[in-house]
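quick one, 462 residues, struct below
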Amino acid sequence: MAGGAVASNVKAAGPALTRRQEIFSFALVASLFFAWGLSYGLIDVLNKKVVEHFGISKLQSTLLQVAYFGAYLVYSVPASLFASRFGYRAGILMGLSLYCAGALAFWPSAHFEKYYGFVISAFVIACGLATLETMANSFISVLGPPEGAAFRLNLAQSMNGLSAFLGPLIASKTFFSGKNANSLDALQWVYLAVACLGAALFVLFFFAKLPNITDADMEDQAESSGIVDERPVWQRKHTMFGFLTQLFYVGAQVSTASFVLFYLTETDGRTSAEASQMLSYLQITFMVARFASTPLLRFFNPCLVLAAYGTSCTVFSLMAALTGGKAGLAAFFLVFFSESVIYPTTFTLATSHLGRHTKRGAGILCMGVAGGSFFPSAQGAFADAKGTRISYIVPMLGFSACAFYGAGMYFYMRRQAKLIADNAVLAGPAVPVVADVNALEKEESIEKVEIEDTRLEAVSRV
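---
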């Protein structure tokens, strides 16, 4: 059951593509994950830089994360509605425009040394990234048969892991080295380069031709898989629980990375530059783990992979909170390894079987990235009060949600497969099989009521 799909050999959504066209479209959209990862990799080191430069508390510094990840809560659903109206390509161009504008805004913020300028810049660039993630995650998921969705998205997001490693490495060589240790000059040039990357991608997508995958195409794909569900997206339990899982997971992931530098400088005696470089090694681990773990989704049920990796993150976050020093650092390497496939696997599971609601569902799932806006604040307050090491109890709680969702989705997917199989037997081999999920759930509700009535009648007789 690769990719979490109920059915196999289901047609891809949208127009028929040659293998070459499919690979080109995949590679082009995957390049967006590089832009996202680079910005994300820089924000954690920027957090440490502003604490030192402006002399603010750890809790105050998390306002950057609140702005950066809060933008996903504000902008993801509008971006999905824009995509439904104008298509994926127009949405990508809008996202890249905001990405460039936000990156350029860091220049005057650093020049005038205004902390709230950094906060506003982070919000604008993140609005662009929220748009790009909504477009790219959804597009990759439907660019091919649904049973391969988890594999495709994990492979595309490996680009994210590559650039997330480069971000802290670049920052460690520029933000804290030499004369830049006490100034913000290097930061201006780094974000100018980020803006240039965004502009280059804008030009590329402006002239490139992407297949136009419409809501009707995705509805046809859902029907061909044997599922018809007319309920609006907010009534799909697997999607809404997926949103909550993303909210807790991203919050835990962001919070873990945001305080690594403080953890290493306080418990392991490292300098800020050394800690930043160690963060880049942790991101390398994340990148390698994503490449290494993605093939597992070809051979193992993605629900079980998600549950196993979520459990691993939970256990080793607790280990980091209770130890410190080299043992804590080893625990972080295992946490970053285990984080590798959680986000894209949750995304594909939660947006499966949505049909024409796929783009809107993608927007809701990307809203879950907003968890990165409040988890760091909670951990920052905990760290200021009790210490950075023990504050890793906070992300541990977030990671546990992934383990529960993976286990729950395993039974949900088995139930979906049984519904289709039962309908196939009733319909016969010559009749197309389409399971009306809404009707079947109503039948189950009626059966439950009848059972309850029988039970009450028996009790009344007694």
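Residues 1-8, 430-435, 446-452, 458-462 have pLDDT under 50 and may be disordered.
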